[in-house]
Specification:
This protein is mainly α. The protein has one domain: Up-down Bundle (Four Helix Bundle (Hemerythrin (Met), subunit A)), CATH 1.20.120.910. About 70% of the residues lie in helices and about 0% in strands. Helix 1 runs antiparallel to helix 2. The radius of gyration is 19 Å and the shape is flat. It starts with a helix and ends with a helix. Bound molecules: zinc ion.
């Protein structure tokens, strides 16, 4: 991968990381506000809880994405970005454009998701 591509992918990764961090922060803020407003409001508790659970799920998957993004940024700094962590093959640029923080090539990803029995 040439330097120009590497720089532009790194830019996308940093931008996405900022986006995710902002999202996590604002979700956290909303939860804090909600607990203030809804003190003593028992009617809405059931629906409210499931909403909160959704927030937690979102935060968990966002965390995984965030980890991968941090990892990808670290790799970009060492110019090791764009290589599969499993088989060391170059990940096609089209795939990186779709998921810039991907750690594996399509073959390895598919094998991880559908292990042979
Ligand atoms: Zn691979």
């Amino acid at each position: 991968m040439n330097k120009k591509d590497l720089t532009s992918f790194k830019k996308i990764l940093i931008q996405k990381r900022t986006e995710l961090l902002n999202k996590t922060n604002s979700a956290q803020r909303e939860m804090d506000n909600d607990s203030d407003i809804n003190v003593g409001d028992e009617i809405d508790t059931a629906s409210h809880n499931s909403e909160k659970e959704m927030y937690f799920e979102l935060a968990a998957s966002d965390k995984i994405t965030l980890d991968s993004i941090n990892c990808a940024i670290a790799k970009a700094e060492k110019a090791a970005y764009g290589k599969c962590e499993c088989c060391d093959n170059i990940i096609p640029k089209e795939r990186l454009k779709a998921i810039p923080w991907t750690r594996y090539c399509i073959q390895c990803q598919e094998e991880a998701e559908n292990p042979k029995k």
